[in-house]
Specification:
Oligomer: single chain
Order of helices and strands: HEEEHEEE
Helix content: under 10%
Strand order of the largest sheet: 3-2-1-4
């Protein structure tokens, strides 16, 4: 489903999405970072680009005091990243691959 995001890598675009969940992510060093799950992400032409995306909640996003169910509009630059664990062994159930955010 993220093939639509692949086509936008490196470009800054306008999107809309629905706030689905506010959560916390545990870090390697033991601290917690607030995160936000956005669902039904659409581009400016209202075309569906991905079913969900997780974001780290920055100070500016935190100030918005978002609630589950709200629809938000935002600008973002699409980038790629390596997904999965690359710890020196092959894991058939969770292979290392390129994904898009």
């Amino acid at each position: 489903m993220r093939k639509h995001l692949r086509d936008l890598v490196g470009t800054r675009s306008t999107f809309t999405a629905t706030v689905a969940r506010l959560s916390m992510k545990h870090t390697y060093r033991g601290g917690d970072i607030p995160t936000l799950l956005l669902e039904d992400v659409r581009n400016a032409r209202n075309q569906h680009v991905t079913d969900h995306v997780w974001l780290t909640i920055s100070w500016s996003i935190q100030r918005l005091q978002l609630c589950v169910g709200e629809v938000v509009a935002f600008e973002a630059r699409v980038t790629s990243y390596i997904k999965g664990y690359n710890i020196g062994h092959h894991d058939a159930y969770n292979p290392v691959r390129i994904d898009y955010r």
